[in-house]
């Protein structure tokens, strides 16, 4: 299977797929937004009938039933009418509140700005709905069924409104700012207690967990998760009250003992904290981590300072020796990297004065008094530098001793850290143990109090009521995925049925399935009116390239001849409109542009089409005139083509005769063909469709090659069956098939696209949309 071809079959209908996806996914999205989602809330409780937990401070003894963990009694109790009636009354489930949002009137709200107080028994409440709106004067209530409106003046609800089974007043919160709710509309559904109970039972599901003994799972489905959780919580509370038989005992002795132990451990804890405080003060420790960081950093700093000082000693010693060894006229170095500004400045001054002495020596002799004086000063100054440098070196040596001492002290403190940390860790460990024991005693005390408060309750809430906010209906992901799949499958199914029922010709395979062993000579593309006649010798249009390929393939089908007579190519089709005249016209032009003498004859006397391509009148004289009069010379009816090719002559069909079958079968036509063979290289015949009339079959034996034209998305496969019968009976000989009118953009199975003809089509200049006045017309 050619997957690409199968894909292209359906891809050409992508707008329908896209439209279907938009419609179905849009409908699903609107449905999800309009329909209130239904959520499932659940809770899990544990009924411990054995009470064998020995680890608790207080053990609760209860009567033991059979060894089996049978929860049928508890489930029967929860689902009983009496039990659920209490839930309905406690939660006021006779009233359902909704907020009107756009066209959706079932958006459940948990808090409304008003309070409804029944004026009749809850059991006798009517099943009715009211739309409620808060305004400046009070409340406006409307019955949607009867469209009757009630007005309740004021916000206090002191007076009952005739016809209403309740009083209405603003809630305490809403009374602070009533105008805030003026634009909101609400809806309340009122049901009697019986219906509320029935609704609750239908939405509630109670089951025992088969895998865990003593576990009951409660589930409630509804559009309001908060309401569902309240219902489950109320059921748990009521069940707990039913199980508890109001026998609670306070464990005074246990609590008293725990209080004594808590007091004793509190004193021990305070004592250890005092020891810790004293130890930290004695060792000058604030926080141990900070102390470690500080002492480690101090040691590093002292070590670094000592290293820098030793480096200066080395540099100063080197400088001192270098200066001592320098001659009286030699400049002193200034790059010793000494951290003594005085020494550095003295070196600079010395070198400056030495430069002055060199200048004097250049102008005078060494006996010059000024030079002698300056040299004396330099000697003194050099000695001062040596003395100063020696003093600086002495200072560095003293500093080095001090640094070594401080470094030793810092090192000792760092080495003492593990010992101090160990001592402090022992204190903290002892303190933590006391604190943990103290906290554990407090916890045990609280457990004792709580256990005493629920002494005989063997109900435990394993999972508090919680809501799975993944709606069980409608499920957005499932709905959208379903809409997406349906949006794809529907057009796919329609397209599949359409393609399955489609009997038109679309590609070579469609032809070869019906007519086997018949060569496909070529494919003629569907072109616009502008490109229709663009078939010159130098043209690179789609039609020109396709015609050249067709001519080349026909030449291979042409039988070899020993004589030099011209060849006859017959163009025909099954029915009218398949483009045989169009193909014959372009075949004639293409061959004539190859410097071949070509005669194009319009043999379709019933519905001639060639005159349209040459812009001549339909009634121009031609073949029918010659066939009707044997004395006429057929050459005088020829039309010389000057527009397309100088080598092309055309013999049009002429006036439509009343008896075309009789005319075409007389000997004049065969004589014409035989004479034309001696004059022209090619005679191309544009004949009538073979399935409509038998005209073509009467002279088809004259053709060397029969070109059978079928049209893309037009010719029915059943027409090919008839053509195949003609070929089997040899009524059509040496047949090749041409597929005409191929839409290069939508055709599957060809693979042309815009690259047909070596991209020649892409070289055309694209016109702006406002200049594209010519519509695409099928050839």
From TrEMBL:
InterPro entries (UniProt xref): Bact_polysacc_biosynth/exp (IPR050445), LPS_length_determ_N (IPR003856), P-loop_NTPase (IPR027417), Wzc-like_C (IPR005702)
A single Gene Ontology CC term: plasma membrane
Coiled-coil ranges per UniProt: none
Pfam families referenced in this protein's UniProt entry, alphabetically: Wzz (PF02706)
SUPFAM superfamilies reported for this sequence: P-loop containing nucleoside triphosphate hydrolases
Domain Polysaccharide chain length determinant N-terminal: 11-91
Protein name in the entry: Capsular exopolysaccharide family
Organism annotation: Flavobacterium phragmitis
């Amino acid at each position: 299977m050619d997957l690409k071809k199968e894909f292209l079959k359906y891809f050409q209908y992508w707008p329908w797929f896209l439209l279907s996806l938009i419609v179905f996914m849009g409908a699903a999205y609107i449905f999800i937004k309009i329909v209130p989602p239904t959520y499932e809330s659940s809770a899990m409780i544990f009924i411990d009938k054995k009470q064998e937990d020995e680890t608790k401070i207080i053990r609760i003894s209860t009567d033991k039933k059979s060894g089996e963990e049978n929860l049928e009694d508890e489930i029967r109790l929860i689902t009983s009418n009496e039990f659920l009636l209490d839930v309905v009354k406690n939660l006021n489930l006779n009233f359902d509140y909704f907020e009107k949002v756009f066209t959706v009137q079932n958006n459940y709200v948990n808090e409304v700005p008003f309070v409804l107080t029944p004026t009749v028994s809850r059991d006798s409440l009517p099943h009715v709905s009211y739309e409620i709106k808060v305004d400046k004067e009070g409340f406006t209530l409307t019955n949607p069924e009867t469209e009757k409106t009630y007005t309740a003046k004021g916000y206090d609800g002191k007076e009952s409104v005739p016809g209403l089974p309740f009083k209405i007043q603003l809630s305490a919160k809403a009374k602070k700012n009533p105008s805030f709710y003026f634009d909101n509309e609400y809806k309340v559904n009122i049901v009697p207690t019986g219906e509320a109970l029935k609704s609750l039972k239908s939405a509630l599901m109670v089951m025992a967990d088969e895998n865990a003994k003593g576990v009951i799972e409660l589930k409630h489905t509804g559009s309001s998760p908060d309401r569902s959780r309240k219902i489950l919580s109320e059921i748990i509370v009521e069940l707990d009250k039913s199980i508890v038989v109001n026998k609670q005992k306070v464990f005074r002795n246990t609590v008293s003992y725990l209080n004594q132990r808590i007091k004793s451990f509190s004193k021990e804890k305070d004592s250890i904290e005092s020891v810790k405080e004293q130890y930290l003060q004695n060792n000058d420790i604030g926080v141990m981590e900070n102390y470690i960081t500080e002492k480690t950093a101090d040691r590093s700093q002292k070590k670094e300072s000592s290293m820098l000082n030793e480096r200066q000693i080395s540099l100063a010693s080197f400088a001192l020796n270098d200066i001592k060894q320098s001659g009286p006229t030699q400049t002193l170095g200034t790059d010793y990297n000494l951290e003594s500004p005085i020494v550095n400045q003295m070196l600079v001054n010395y070198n400056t004065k030495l430069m002055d002495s060199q200048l004097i020596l250049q102008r005078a002799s060494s006996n010059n008094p000024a030079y002698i004086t300056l040299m004396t000063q330099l000697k003194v100054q050099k000695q001062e530098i040596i003395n100063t440098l020696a003093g600086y070196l002495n200072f560095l040596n003293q500093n080095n001793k001090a640094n070594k001492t401080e470094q030793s002290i810092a090192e000792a403190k760092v080495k003492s850290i593990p010992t101090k940390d160990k001592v402090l860790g022992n204190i903290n460990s002892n303190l933590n143990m006391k604190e943990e024991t103290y906290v554990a005693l407090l916890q045990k005390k609280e457990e004792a109090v709580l256990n005493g408060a629920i002494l005989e309750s063997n109900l435990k809430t394993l999972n508090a009521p919680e809501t799975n906010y993944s709606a069980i209906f409608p499920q957005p992901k499932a709905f959208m995925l379903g809409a997406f799949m349906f949006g794809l499958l529907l057009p796919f199914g329609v397209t599949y049925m359409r393609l399955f029922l489609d009997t038109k010709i679309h590609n070579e395979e469609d032809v070869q399935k019906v007519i086997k062993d018949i060569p496909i000579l070529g494919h003629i593309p569907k072109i616009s009116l502008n490109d229709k006649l663009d078939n010159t010798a130098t043209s690179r249009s789609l039609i020109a390239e396709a015609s050249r390929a067709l001519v080349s393939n026909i030449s291979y089908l042409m039988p070899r001849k020993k004589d030099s007579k011209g060849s006859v190519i017959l163009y025909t089709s099954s029915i009218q409109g398949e483009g045989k005249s169009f193909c014959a016209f372009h075949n004639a032009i293409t061959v004539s542009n190859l410097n071949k003498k070509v005669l194009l004859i319009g043999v379709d006397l019933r519905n001639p089409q060639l005159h349209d391509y040459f812009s001549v009148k339909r009634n121009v004289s031609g073949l029918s005139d010659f066939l009707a009069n044997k004395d006429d010379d057929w050459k005088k009816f020829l039309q010389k083509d000057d527009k397309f090719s100088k080598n092309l002559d055309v013999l049009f069909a002429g006036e439509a005769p009343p008896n075309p079958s009789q005319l075409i079968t007389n000997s004049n036509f065969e004589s014409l063909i035989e004479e034309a063979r001696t004059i022209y290289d090619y005679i191309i015949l544009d004949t009538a469709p073979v399935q409509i009339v038998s005209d073509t079959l009467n002279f088809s034996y004259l053709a060397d090659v029969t070109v059978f034209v079928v049209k893309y998305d037009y010719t029915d496969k059943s027409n090919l069956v008839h053509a195949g019968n003609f070929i089997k009976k040899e009524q059509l000989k040496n047949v090749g098939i041409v597929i005409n009118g191929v839409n290069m953009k939508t055709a599957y199975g060809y693979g042309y696209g815009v690259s047909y003809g070596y991209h020649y089509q892409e070289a055309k200049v694209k016109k702006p949309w406002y200049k594209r006045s010519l519509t695409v017309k099928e050839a």
